Amino acid sequence: KIMSKIKLFISTILLVGLFSVPSMSDIRVGVGFADTSVDANGTETLHNSSGGAASKGTNGDNASTSVSADTTVGHLFVEKTFSNGVALGIDYIPGDADISAEQTRTDDDADTTGDNKASAHVSDHVTFYAMAPLGDSPFFIRGGITSLTVNTTENLATGSTYGNKDINGVTAGIGAHLERDSGLFVRVEANVSEYEDMTFTSTATLANTVEADINTAEMRLSVGKSF
User: pLDDT (tens digit, 9 = 90+) per residue, 90-117?
Assistant: First the structure.
């Protein structure tokens, strides 16, 4: 599976970083902008717990959808490099980002009547990563572990809410780092990320379940300074 291959890739890079750090060298700080493609898949399953012959609910029915969107995301990062070229760093995406277009569904049954609008955004996106150079070339490979918070922003006629959830993921990529004697550098890279599956269960008597997963791919340009 793709997830297993990415985890193996990341584990290899982190081992290189942990066991090949004889002496500290530079601190790098930088900013980057990424053209990011987001692919999301979700399935909503209806669980009608009201029962009874008068109920016209659809217990167990489900609907699935897939959404793809492109967006530009800003990054801030700081990393420590070592004499062998390996770098360990933290990458942070400030602010919130929508991960789905708002969708509206109208229900008219014994349990609910009205519009149900569902949407979500992510925040607190942090990645801990390691970079390893490919020989004496400017190219490098990169892998890391990501965490973020998914905030649901639904407006449901049922009065239900889905709440928020913290999820983790893995990321891997390849790029090129060019640095001048002054310490100024420019970096280009391509990364892919895969996040763990999410499950949200709504509150209230009529409990629905939403299962979703998110994958991203990005092309990033960064600039920064070594100290």
Answer: 999 987 766 655 554 445 444 545 455 5
